[in-house]
Amino acid sequence: MQIPYVIDNIEQRLADVLRYLLSRASDQSLDIATAYFSIRGFEQLRHELETTGQVRLLLGDKPVAADDLGMRPDSSAFLRHELNAEAFTERTLRLVEQLIRFLRRDEVEVRLYTGLLAGEKGRRAFLHAKCYLLYGRLPAANVFDPLTPIVGIVGSSNFTGPGLVSNHELNLVHKTLLTDAELDDAEAKATVAQHAAQLSAAPLELEHERMLKSEIGTRAILDLSRWYEQQWQHALDYKEQLIELLENSKFGGREYSPYEIYMKALYTYFKDDLAERDQQPATRSAVELAEFQEDAVRKARRILAQYDGAIVADSVGLGKTWIGKKLLEDYAYHQRQKALVICPASLRGMWERELHSATIAAQVLTQERLGLDEFDGREFFDVDLILVDEAHNFRNKRAKRYQQLELLLAANGRRGRSGSRKKLILLTATPINNNIFDLYNQINLFTGNDRSYFASAGIGDLYKYFLAARCESLEAGSIRIFNLLEEVVIRRTRQFIRRAYPEALIHGEPIRWPTRQLHSVEYDLQAAYSGLYQNIIGSIEGLHLAHYNLEAYKLRPSDQDEFELGRQAALVGIFKSRFLKRLESSIEAFRISIRRSLAFVKTFAEYVQDGIVLDSVSFQQAMRLLEADEEDSDDSTPSSQASALDEHAAASLIIAKLPKLEASKYDRRRLHRALQADIDALNEIWHAIKHIQASHDAKLLQLQSLLASQLNGCKVVIFTYYKDTARYVYQALTEASNAEWLATLGNPTIRRIDSSVKTTDRTRIVSHFAPRASNQPELVGTSDEVQILIATDVLSEGHNLQDCGHLLNYDLHWNPTRMVQRAGRIDRLGSNFDLLHVYNMFPERELEALLGLVRSLTSKIDLINQTGFLDASVLGEVVTPRDFNTLKRIADEDHSVIEEQESFLELASSESLFAELQNVLATDAQRWLTDLDDGIHSGIERRNAKGLFFYFTAPRDGSTAHFWRYYDLEKQTITDNRYTIMQLIACSPDTPRFAPPYSEVDIFAIHDTILNSILRDVQQQVTATVVDKIVAPEQNVIAQLLHNNLAQPGVDRGEVRELRKMLKEPQVGAVVQRLRKTLNRYNADNDLLALLEVLRELYQTQGRSNLEPSGPVSMITRDDLTLVCYEYIYA
Question: Domain Helicase ATP-binding: where (predicted)?
């Protein structure tokens, strides 16, 4: 090979020239000056460098401020960036190991340039030069001077892979010695001869000197050598630091601790959230928030920008209203968008006042009005933003209010007045009440039934995602859907806020967090029922409730529906447990239940006697119409209401429309015997309890005693589950015969709130009970101020009662989470109490027996559930083993149970992890975290685990995509649930490092398996957004029907094309329901024009939704993925 004079990596590559020189020379040494150094540069020369003698490597300096280019490059940072970006392969690992061995040789020196600019003190210059000097003896050259380079290369090529091979560079080669071939250079000879002829007049000796001087190779090399020595003297030893940098990388041998992996994962995962917190608000605000509320607003803004919908699910009393108000200010005030607030009627006045106080132009619509059949929502079709308060009231997709909201959101192609996609904010402390699909239905409000809506988050089919979580407990289900919760839900508990924001302020004042103290109030349940308790319990246990279990009375087992058989058997258990719950609540609630049930069974039995078998659940609708007209206080023996049903216009109409079951399929004689047995048992109970007076009610008397002693002079709210109990207690406390007792209390004002109280009256009563919280301090101390408030759970929704410090639960907590929700009414931001008292009434001797009865019924229902024959509507009323244990702990005044229940209410969340990271950063640990290289690893011991955790990131659609994966070595399965993985890697600073079993695991093969899995997942996500959406079957049928009828008269092909496009897109449930009815009508009358008319109307109101939630999902390649960290997790 002839050494060129110019090297540009086009005709000649610098790597090839250096390899040739290093392999041809003997006794060689090498000096290199470079701004940047990379492992790929070393890779080009690694074999030749192994046999090279002394090697000196001079690197550019660390960054300093430049005059006109911002920050100058950092050679160390360049190398670190390259190592972080390198794919994790065995080949690269071996390369780095070889480089470290090479650097550890005594003959190898590395320095970092620190020279100063001439004439200036304390200001460093960056070494940007690139120079390669080779010392040694070339073949055919007999002269050797070990201090003089034989070749010098200077130009633009850094000692990097691209610098040596692929970049278009320009380097000039200077030589001291020439080979024989280079001496016989015809082109050079001709040039010299030409110059000689032109200068023949000059003295020969002068021309000879001129030509020698023109040979600049030797002169240049000597100058380069002196230059290099000068720069070398202005550099500091950097060899160990370079080795350390390599050892710290994912290819090095540094042993990182499990805590460093944990913190690396958290810091990377929350990096965007941290950057968000550092941003200052761009606009002024009239809504002053606490720090934790501001954090929620920031996160909600990001979620809304990406998904057009967000759920704020903080615990009761943490100011969700204010968070929503700040978001409304963003859109309705600053962006001048059209906004709508939907709330319960009882909260309408509060929202109107709050909006007015911040000059936010938004309309307020009550949920009750929204649910009316005659509701006309056209004035809201162009709304840009809808905020729903108490959004859990939209958990039922079949409810009228839900369907009306669906239509408001779907109108105008889901676009608002601004032309942008509509936004939806849901506020609720309990997004899940019965089962996980409560949350699904609420999220579906902003997905518009598009099951691929969250494809970019790794959820290709939202419905199947929830279906997989539905069969698990609430706690396990929320963990199962954790990745989705992280995308759209903001959820923090009171204890988390208290722990994570210990110095939180609101309106400049420290937030007071009262302590909740439990008190048990015992009473004699046997005495409350005049000694008849045991007999009554026995009668309830013996009830057949055949009217709820009709499937069991079919003559032939072959006619029985197995699912319905199990469901109805469970219903029998549910209704028996209802009797027991109302029995414990109050004598009056139980009395009314027995009275209504007796009338119901007698009526039902009369229909059966006449050969008519009706669906009992539907039959209740007609019976309720009669109940509305009757007096529950009537103590006459209930009789059959069959005649009354026939005479009642609305009830008889319902009866007429009810599906008549085939009476011939039922054993009517056995059914009638069971009904008659229940009539006899209920009659016996009725006659035993109908005359028990309030003055002999041991439970009520105990309440009165408590109010006259410990709670005398205190503002108290008394909660009960049942409206009948609330009325009974109110009447008993306020009746004239209690005048003397009331006088001992100072004649307090007592009021009642339940579902029968008008909304306006509820608002007035609440403001009189909590005048300070309602901004009516002038009522304090007046006769209008309410001291004792008796309420059902209609009051536990959205009202601020922090003027009150005492709460009493009149009946047992069959659902203990209600206690937390009720406590949240008085434990709210702005409370002036340091201690809040929660009183709970328990039957003294009968508690265990009562719990045993309900537990027995629950166990039977659970056995049925295990066969798969129950649905959510039944399971929502079942008391869980956790609830039984909690009830006992409440009775024992275990104060920790409140916070535990609040935690149970909380959906699985990473907020505590974010708070943990913030605490670490508060100790100035950010530099430590940023210095942790990508791709680092460790090992941690975990019980019952054997696998590997991998964490990758990739740039995607303007943000960062996070891929957490756990590979189970025994099952050979891959898990992507971040909550589950977080539990595996979470640890403390002193957690010992588990020595990874390198020999047992092919880490590179598993790494590639994980990578391929991620790429497959991404491909499925992309596919989900480009293939036809999953739509209701009716849509496909109608679309095909339109296609088949294109040639029919009156059919416009262009119009049909647009209608079919609309039908190929997901439609909300209300639209699907109408399409189903329209299709049924078409199948009956074959009227194509009527079908087209309905479709035109839908197209005009709903339009087409062409806007994706976050734009098309972009593809990710293997090169896009960066390994953040990985960890061996072993038992």
Answer: 301-449
Q: Could you tell me if 224 and 333 lie in one domain? A: no
DSSP 171: E
Residue 32 lies in a domain: yes
Name the pairing type of β-strands 505-506 and 423-427. unpaired
Number of H helices, E strands in the chain: 47, 29
Same domain? 132 vs 24? yes
For 1097, the domain range is 940-1130
843 vs 533: CA distance, rounded Å: 12
Q: DSSP secondary structure string, 371-416?
A: TSTT---GGGTT-SEEEEESGGGG--TTSHHHHHHHHHHHGGGGB-
Residue 484's CATH number: 3.40.50.10810
In terms of domains, do 669 and 534 share one?
yes
Q: Are residues 997 and 1014 in the same domain?
A: yes
Whether 775 and 828 share a structural domain: yes
700 and 686 in a common domain: no
Residue with structure tokens 């009716």? 1034
pLDDT digits (tens, 9 = 90+) for 315-328: 888 889 999 999 99
Residue 922 lies in a domain: no
- Amino acid in the structure at residue 546: A
Question: What are the residues facing 55 on neighbouring strands?
Answer: 30, 108
Tokens of 297: 């607003």
In terms of domains, do 225 and 314 share one? no
User: In this structure, are residues 455 and 484 in contact, taking their beta carbons and an 8 Å threshold?
Assistant: no
CB–CB of 344/367 below 8 Å? yes
Tokens coding 408:
């408001």
Number of domains composing the chain: 5
| Distance of alpha carbon 1064 from alpha carbon 1028, whole angstroms | 7
Quick check: 326 and 285 in contact, CB under 8 A? yes
Contact (Cβ atoms closer than 8 angstroms) between residue 1126 and residue 951:
yes
Show the DSSP H helices in 628-667 as ranges. 642-647, 649-657
Place 277 in a pLDDT band, splitting at 50, 70 and 90.
confident
CATH of residue 731's domain is: 3.40.50.300
β-bridge pairing 946-956 and 959-968? antiparallel
The answer as to whether 853 is a domain residue is no
The yes-or-no verdict on residue 460 having pLDDT over 90 is no
Smallest CA-to-CA distance from 730 within 552, 565, 586 is with: 586
Alpha-carbon span 45 to 56, nearest angstrom: 14
Q: How many CA atoms lie within 13 A of 1016 on its CB side?
A: 7
Is residue 311 a contact partner of residue 394, using CB atoms and an 8 Å limit?
no
Residue 134 lies in a domain: yes
Q: Say if residue 340 is in the same domain as residue 414.
A: yes
